[in-house]
Design a protein that fits this description.
Length: about 70
């Protein structure tokens, strides 16, 4: 995998890298090679796992839960 190891990223760098990957996801899916898509997916997963490790008690929006979706229906 390329890029700085996730544990070495500052919080700001981690957020910036995640934002950039989300911005480029569709383009990579539609037009990237299989290798590019695999690398993109692996890097995204690594960054998301690092975020979850750093912020285990992150605030979860009740509207994003299954019960919230049912309440809207």
């Amino acid at each position: 995998m390329t890029g700085i190891p996730t544990v070495e990223l500052s919080d700001d760098d981690l957020h910036r890298e995640l934002a950039h990957l989300y911005e480029t996801r569709l383009e990579t899916l539609r037009h990237g090679s299989d290798d590019a898509l695999e690398s993109h997916t692996a890097r995204t997963q690594a960054l998301e796992q690092e975020y979850q490790r750093r912020v285990p008690g992150r605030e979860v929006d009740p509207e994003r839960l299954r019960s919230g979706a049912r309440a809207r229906a």
